[in-house]
Design goal:
The complex is a heterodimer of chains A (about 110) and B (about 110).
Chain A (H helix, E strand, L loop, with lengths): L3 E3 L4 E4 L4 E7 L4 E9 L6 E6 L4 E3 L2 E6 L4 E6 L8 E9 L5 E4 L3 E6 L1
Parallel strand pairs in A: 2-11
Antiparallel strand pairs in A: 1-3, 3-8, 4-5, 4-9, 6-7, 7-8, 9-10, 9-11
Chain B lengths: L3 E3 L3 E4 L5 E3 L1 E3 L5 E8 L3 E8 L6 E2 L7 E6 L2 E6 L8 E8 L6 E2 L3 E5 L1
Parallel strand pairs in B: 2-12
Antiparallel strand pairs in B: 1-4, 3-9, 5-6, 5-10, 6-7, 8-9, 10-11, 10-12
Classes of the chains: A mainly beta (about 110), B mainly beta (about 110).
Chain lengths: ~110, ~110
Amino acid sequence: RKEVEQDPGPFNVPEGATVAFNCTYSNSASQSFFWYRQDCRKEPKLLMSVYSSGNEDGRFTAQLNRASQYISLLIRDSKLSDSATYLCVVKIGGSASKIIFGSGTRLSIRP
Amino acid sequence: DVKVTQSSRYLVKRTGEKVFLECVQDMDHENMFWYRQDPGLGLRLIYFSYDVKMKEKGDIPEGYSVSREKKERFSLILESASTNQTSMYLCASNRGAGELFFGEGSRLTVL
């Protein structure tokens, strides 16, 4: 079983739609959680960290459920520029710890 | 501006050759990582390092080794390249649980 699992998509939604991605992780020693975004032929970049209480950054909302080992990302009022691959990322362990990526969920926003 | 620099964007090597992929960061980060990215598999962790001369195996270390002689430099070595090591290799660095900064990637083809 993969340590971090995501639905690969692709999700193809119209501009303005709300879209949600889910991610599950298997290692209970996971301590920190993130969503990264990767554009085609580019390197991944941090979209947002995910906090236990849930957090919002503009149109983006991230949630963490430690009991179910589940992370989500909600994008409201989607824009064409949101088209990308969204990567769920988990840091396992303490300061000398590995960072594991899910295989990503591809999102395509159509006009 | 933060910077992670990978020495080669594109390499073509022959089976059995020794391959060095170099990565340098200018942010004084203690943690550095090597991933490979393949279609459908996402980013998979090969090795990481949390300090000079320290290294830890990731999820797929077989066929690879690493070197961290200086804080800013983390090298990935393929002792005897094989065709199944054809991939995009991504180097990243961070401090603590902070954001990962990636290089632009090195696309390696092994013939």
